[in-house]
Each structure stands twice: as structure tokens, then as C-alpha cells.
Write a structure and sequence with these properties.
The complex is a heterodimer.
Chain A: H1 2-36, E1 51-56, H2 61-73, E2 75-76, H3 83-91, E3 97-101, E4 118-121, H4 127-148, H5 154-165, H6 180-211, H7 214-221, H8 227-257, H9 263-289, H10 295-310, H11 321-327, H12 331-343, H13 350-385
Parallel strand pairs in A: 1-2, 1-3
Antiparallel strand pairs in A: 3-4
Helix pairs in contact in A: 1-6, 1-8, 2-5, 4-5, 6-8, 6-9, 6-10, 6-12, 8-9, 9-12, 9-13, 10-12, 12-13
Chain B: E1 3-12, E2 15-25, E3 30-34, H1 41-48, E4 56-61, E5 64-65, H2 71-74, E6 77-80, H3 92-101, H4 107-121, H5 136-148, E7 154-158, H6 166-181, E8 185-190, H7 193-199, E9 202-207, E10 210-216, H8 217-222, E11 228-234, H9 239-246, E12 251-257, E13 260-265, H10 271-281, E14 286-292, H11 296-304
Parallel strand pairs in B: 3-8, 3-9, 6-7, 7-8
Antiparallel strand pairs in B: 1-2, 1-4, 4-5, 9-10, 11-13, 11-14, 12-13
Helix pairs in contact in B: 3-4, 3-5, 4-5, 5-6
The chains are: A mainly alpha, B alpha/beta.
């Protein structure tokens, strides 16, 4: 086991520093993403509060009801009512939306010449539409009550409208497994594709370059050690180092996201293990043609390129159709696709597991293809030497 | 006989790298493979170690046919390659230990052998150094230590002194002599004829994959007509003088390069006297006059019409 021993003497000396840096960057970024909730599959809803100022010139029951409702679901901002102050408030973004309820608003509410509520907003403001929706919801509901029962007093209409529009519905997702934790898992494992390829090309690719050095190889082959044993020791060493790296990242997953053990997290782990084998095959392929000087640039281009095009950083849903078509030829695309499928998994049936198994098989096929190409290159090199 | 190469043919497409090569090496000798770059020396070594497939011929080592899986034979061979083949990431000690460990499994025995190898090449003060921190000469010594630490019976040294300073070269050559004295058979390839002359008891001269001469140094030198060279440092010699020197007894050839006149002659009792008399009679002014015995380069020159380092 001389080759195996030397392999593990070289690895910590040459790569421990690089590995720690990669881990720190990765853990830092993932912690940031998790804490700030920058996850890809957002499933939590939170009502956003817009800064709204209401200038109530009518002061009627209906107008007061509307004002109370607006103030209740927005961030009310009091401003002066003169024209200059209104403009200043918008210009300096003290408020985003101003509602002016005109005099006689209640009296004319049901008549055809109803005085419209005036609104002013910050130009190109997204909140304008939201604020208009709030107002329309109140007024439309009130109009429905008035037309359905004209005898109702304004007070009771106001009460009924407020009661109606303030009621909340509890939404439960059909796919019960989709929790925020699984979304964090999804983001983590998608991002892992970049870091695993980068690390494995950097470590395995470079160490293979050392052992593939022509002179070292010749010296080894002239010794009483079979090429089979030599290659098996190298393969075993590479598999073991890849496994160790993968295992460290799995531990980090649970450190960052908490110890969540369910079927989805198990599937994420399986998929990441397949990714590790795939990354190893890519690193192996790179080592067959790269040189000491070119392996780092090649590693960076491959890891970043495959991860970007595969949807590791940007959700696949946002990728263009062209990129999705090209993605079929990108193994990371399949890895991320499997992760996203696992992330959205509601129930585990044969039908829901099928796309996951299919994606895993595609990744394995890519890995075998890369190894086959590597072996062809090695054979070509050997023949040209002989 | 330790090595027997019979009718070895190695082709690279249309190029014949080794052309029906026959070499026999006896136990305990330092055998030289001399030839210019590209003559096939390294190819012979690679075929010998089964690192290269060959097209025809037989190679027998220690009385057994050599194959890639002849591990019992390989166990007795040490290889020191032309280029330094060590791990930059391992220390001097670890490198020697690793390569020795490919041959010797017993840890204690290996420890002893590594220690001996370190002492032999004089790297005791550098055992914790990494190869990039070593000078060229020390690196070559490490390269040798990695090849000989397991005490092989046959040591193959493929141009071990390329790009080495004169002092380190002398150390290496002395070391090789010592290894031979300790009982190892040495195969030494080089395109430096001085080294081969200094070290080897027998040799072959290779050119374009063919053996053009083989035997002891004396036998090889005896193959050519040249007996000695008389070299005269002169300043006013003319073409007429040179024509007349050519007609003197035993003179084979006369050549003038800048102010150095080289007269190549067959063996003769009064060659130097004849030349000195001619110089005196013709009033030719001169600085130094000396004689040189033929070198292996002269052998190569006479047989192939070109110099070893052409």
C-alpha cells in the first residue's frame, strides 16, 4: 500500500489549506443564505406593509372606516395636507402612496357621479398597485352590500366590510414536506455542486497529475509492483478522499440546517453522493489532459460554468429555454433538477420517485462516459509513448 | 551473464529506433552505452525494463526472460533515470523510503537501507528538505538514492550527470564506482565519452539504433586506424606546409582550426620526432606541441564521420 500511503501524505500537505479555505467560504455563504432566507423555493407568505398617508376630507362613517382599514394594514404616515407638503412627502419618500378622500364621499358613494378617491404615489412605485388593490377591495365589498341591501346603515355596512376583508384563510400546501428547512436543503445541495467540482478538480486532478508524471510512473512501473495494483491503489485513494470530502459536507449540512432526518434529506444525500462520483470522474478526465499550470483555470471554468448553466446559483425556472435545452448535456443540470424535484416532493410513491431515479441514472451515465473518455486518452498517450 | 539482448528491434512507425541489437553484460562489470542523443540508449533501457513493447528479439535478465510482470527480476534492478523522478511534496527521507518501499516490505530493513542510501549519497544533512529546496547536484544525488536504496544487483543509470556541475559529477561517478565495488553490475548510458572512458570496463557505441562498436575501451580504440594525435599550436603555417606534412610517414590526416594544427597518425615509433623536425626545418613558429591518444569520440568520428555531440 505504498502508493496509498504516499497519496495520504501528499494530500494534507498540499491541499489542506485550500480545502479549509473552500470550506470557510462555502459555510460562510450558506450560513448567510440560510439566515437571510435567500432560498430558491420560497414558500412562506408575509404581507408587506406600504407607507400610506390618508387625507380624510369627508370624515364620514364610510370614509373613517376606509381610513381605519388602510391604517390597519399599512404603515400609516401623517403628512400635512397642503399641496406643497404632499409633493415634498412623495419626493422625499416619507410616504409611498397618498389617498385623498374627498368631501361628500359617503353621500355620493352609490350614485353614478360618485366622487372618486384621489390617489398620488411615488413614480414607478410597485406599492401603488398594491395600495389600489387594498382600497378597491374595501370599496367594492361596500358597494356589494349596499346594492344587495340598500336598507342597511352605513355603520353596519362598514362593520360587515371590515369583518369580511379582515378574515384570513389558512393555506396548507398539498406537498406537506415542503418546508422552509427543505428549501434550505435544496439551496445548500444545489450550491454544493459548484464547490464539490471545484474542490475535487483542484485536489484529485492535481494529485493525479503528480502520480501521472511520466518519470514517476516509469520509476513505479520498473519496480516490482503491478500496474493493476498501482492503479487500484490510486483509484481507491481517490474514492476515499472524495468520500471524506462528501461526508464533511454532509455533516456541515446538518450543522447549518439543523438535524433534519426524513426521506427528502436522505434523497438529497444520495443525490449528492452521486454528484461526488460524477465530480470525481470530471476531475479524473481533467487530469488526463491538463498540466500543472492549466489545471486551476480549467477547474474554475468548469466548476463555475457547469454550476451557472446547470442552475446551481439561479433557479432552473429562471433559466432561458435555450439554456434548459443545452442543460440536457450538462450533468449538473440533472443534479439540480433532481434536487428541485426532491425539494418539491409531497409524497413518496413510485411515480414521484421515478424522475429522481431517472436523473440519478443520467448523472451516473455522464460519470461513466467521462471515465471512458479518460481511459481512451490514457490509452492514446500510452500508445504514443510506446 | 546478467543481461542478454538478442536481435532487439523497436520501431516507432517507420522509424527504426533499435535495429537488431545484440548486447551481453556480465556480472560485476560497469557496462557503458555510448551514443549521441537519439541514438537509442534510453529506448534500450526502456525495453530492458519492459516499459516499452518491442517488435522483435529477446531480453533475458538474470537468466530469465524479461516481461512486464517479471517482478522477481525487477526486484533486483535499480533505475536512475535521466530526469529527476521524485515527489516534490515528500521530503528527501520520505522519497527514498517510498521508492525503497516498492521493493522492500519489511519496515526495519527498509529503515536501515534508507539510512545507508542517505549516507552513501551524502544527504544526511538534508533529510527533512523538500526537493524544490535542493540544488541541482543534491537533487541528482537524491535521484540516485531513490534508485539504489534497495541494494539492487543490477543498477541502470540513464545519463545521471546531465546538467550537473563538475564537482557533483565527480561525486556521482565516484559513487557509481563504489556501488560496483560493492558487487552491483552497472549499466551506464551517456553521451559524455569521458565518463564512459573513466567508468566502464566494456561498452557499446550506438548510432541510429545500431551497435557500431563493442568491446573494451582498448578493443574499440584498436578498431580504428588512428594511433595518436599530435597537436601543435602554430601561427604561420601555410597550405603548402600542410600538404607536405600529409606526405610524412604514418600521417592520416591534417587539420587546422584557428591556430591549432591537429595531425592524426597511425601508430609509429618516431611520429613526434618527424613532426618536430619538419617544424624546425621549415622555421615554423609554435607555442605548444603535445600528443593525445585516440578517444572514443575519435572512434565514433572515424566510423560514422560525425562527432558524438553533433
Amino acid at each position: 500500500m505504498q502508493v496509498f500511503k504516499v497519496f495520504y501524505k501528499i494530500v494534507p500537505r498540499k491541499f489542506l489549506g485550500v480545502f479549509i479555505i473552500y470550506i470557510l467560504i462555502f459555510v460562510g455563504l450558506m450560513s448567510l443564505f440560510t439566515k437571510s432566507g435567500m432560498t430558491q423555493g420560497e414558500d412562506a407568505f408575509e404581507l408587506s406593509a406600504v407607507k400610506i398617508s390618508v387625507i380624510n376630507k369627508d370624515n364620514s362613517t364610510l370614509a373613517n372606516g376606509l381610513e381605519a382599514y388602510i391604517n390597519d394594514i399599512s404603515k400609516p404616515v401623517k403628512i400635512k395636507t397642503d399641496e406643497e407638503s404632499i409633493r415634498d412627502a412623495l419626493f422625499f419618500r416619507e410616504t409611498e402612496f397618498i389617498v385623498i378622500i374627498p368631501e361628500g364621499f359617503q353621500n355620493n358613494f352609490t350614485t353614478l357621479d360618485a366622487k372618486n378617491i384621489q390617489t398620488m404615489s411615488v413614480p414607478d412605485s410597485m406599492s401603488r398597485e398594491y395600495a389600489k388593490t387594498i382600497i378597491d377591495r374595501y370599496l367594492n365589498t361596500a358597494k356589494v352590500y349596499i346594492s344587495a341591501n340598500p336598507d342597511l346603515s352605513i355603520e353596519s355596512i362598514n362593520e360587515k366590510v371590515l369583518n369580511d376583508i379582515s378574515s384570513e384563510a389558512n393555506v396548507s400546501f398539498l406537498d406537506g414536506n415542503v418546508t422552509n428547512d427543505m428549501s434550505n436543503f435544496n439551496t445548500y445541495f444545489n450550491f454544493l455542486s459548484y464547490i464539490l467540482i471545484a474542490i475535487l478538480i483542484s485536489m484529485v486532478g492535481r494529485i493525479m497529475l503528480i502520480f501521472n508524471d511520466k518519470e514517476i510512473k516509469m520509476r513505479n512501473y520498473s519496480a516490482p509492483i503491478s500496474s493493476k495494483s498501482y492503479n487500484y491503489q490510486l483509484i481507491f485513494s481517490n474514492l476515499l478522499i472524495a468520500f471524506i470530502i462528501w461526508f464533511i459536507f454532509i455533516i456541515i449540512t446538518f450543522v447549518i440546517n439543523g438535524p433534519i432526518f426524513n426521506q427528502s434529506s436522505f434523497l438529497f444525500i444520495i443525490n449528492s453522493f452521486i454528484l461526488t462520483l460524477l465530480s470525481l470522474s470530471i476531475a479524473f478526465l481533467v487530469s488526463t489532459f491538463a498540466t500543472k499550470k492549466s489545471i486551476d483555470p480549467i477547474g474554475n471554468c468548469l466548476s463555475l460554468g457547469l454550476a451557472f448553466l446547470g442552475g446551481s446559483f439561479v433557479p432552473q425556472a429562471l433559466l432561458s429555454e435555450q439554456l434548459k435545452t443545452i442543460g440536457i448535456f450538462n450533468p449538473i443540470f440533472w443534479y439540480v433538477k433532481v434536487n428541485d424535484t426532491i425539494g418539491n416532493l409531497a409524497v413518496n410513491t413510485q411515480a414521484t420517485l421515478e424522475p429522481i431515479i431517472y436523473g440519478i441514472l443520467v448523472q451516473l451515465a455522464f460519470a461513466f462516459a467521462f471515465i471512458a473518455i479518460s481511459l481512451v486518452i490514457i490509452k492514446q498517450k500510452r500508445q504514443s509513448f510506446e | 551473464m546478467i543481461v542478454k539482448i538478442e536481435n532487439l528491434v523497436k520501431r516507432y512507425d517507420k522509424l527504426i529506433a533499435l535495429d537488431h541489437l545484440n548486447i551481453e553484460i556480465n556480472e560485476g562489470e560497469i557496462f557503458g552505452l555510448l551514443g549521441p542523443n537519439g541514438s537509442g540508449k534510453t529506448t534500450v533501457i526502456n525495453c530492458l525494463l519492459s516499459l516499452l513493447k518491442f517488435d522483435k528479439g529477446n531480453i533475458t535478465l538474470f537468466g530469465k526472460e524479461m516481461r512486464p510482470s517479471s517482478y522477481d527480476i525487477k526486484r533486483n534492478i535499480g533505475l536512475v533515470m535521466q530526469n529527476v523522478a521524485v515527489f516534490e511534496e515528500l521530503t528527501v527521507y520520505e522519497n527514498i523510503d517510498y521508492f525503497c518501499g516498492l521493493y522492500i516490505k519489511d519496515k526495519d530493513k527498509r529503515k536501515d537501507l534508507v539510512k545507508q542510501a542517505i549516507e552513501f549519497v551524502g544527504l544526511k544533512d538534508f533529510i527533512k528538505f523538500y526537493p524544490p529546496k535542493l540544488s541541482g547536484g543534491l537533487l541528482r544525488r537524491l535521484n540516485i538514492a531513490c534508485g539504489i536504496a534497495h541494494h539492487p544487483k543490477l543498477i541502470i543509470l540513464d545519463e545521471p550527470t546531465v546538467a550537473v556541475d563538475p564537482q557533483s559529477r565527480n561525486n556521482i561517478l565516484e559513487g557509481i564506482k563504489k556501488l560496483n565495488e560493492q558487487g552491483a553490475t552497472i549499466i551506464y548510458t551517456s553521451h559524455y565519452m569521458e565518463e564512459i572512458e573513466q567508468l566502464c570496463s566494456r561498452l557499446v557505441i550506438l548510432d541510429k539504433g545500431k551497435v557500431i562498436a563493442s568491446g573494451t575501451k582498448e578493443e574499440i580504440k584498436g578498431m580504428i586506424s588512428l594511433g595518436e594525435k599530435i597537436i601543435v599550436e602554430t601561427f604561420n603555417i601555410t597550405e603548402n606546409h600542410m600538404d607536405r606534412i600529409r606526405k610524412l610517414p604514418n600521417v592520416i590526416d591534417v587539420e587546422l582550426r584557428e591556430n591549432t594544427l591537429t595531425i592524426r597518425q597511425k601508430n609509429g615509433a618516431s611520429n613526434l620526432v618527424n613532426i618536430m623536425s619538419f617544424i624546425a626545418e621549415n622555421d615554423i613558429s609554435y607555442g605548444k606541441i603535445y600528443t593525445e591518444l585516440p578517444t572514443l569520440n575519435d572512434v565514433f568520428l572515424e566510423i560514422t564521420g560525425k562527432e558524438l555531440r553533433d
